[in-house]
Amino acid sequence: MTPFGARLRALRELRGVSLAQLADTIQVSSAYLSALEHGHRGRPSAGLLHQVNEFFGLIWDEADALSRLAALSHPRVIIDTAGLSPDATELANRLAERIRGLEPGRLRALLDTLGE
Fold it and tell me: What is the rounded CA–CA span in Å between residue 87 and residue 116?
């Protein structure tokens, strides 16, 4: 699940909206929304973000936060370390090798270290 997918699901559950209801209202398939929630699709388009914001009545900070989560939600990331230090290249490679095995607490600690 991606950060955007997790937030979308939380919004739906908080408001008591089914996947089918949301999909029907914003005119996309339930399968597409499910794939977004589970991280099987890339980032949502700006148009879809707008529709989701409008559906849930998100404005200003909430809408901006959802956009930031969408930007961080591409399920396949490529890191180009050409021209960077050997340490940067090593970090990228180690992360790629080990990310699936990291415990949630370690992942959170790494994210906190990197900041926003």
Answer: 21
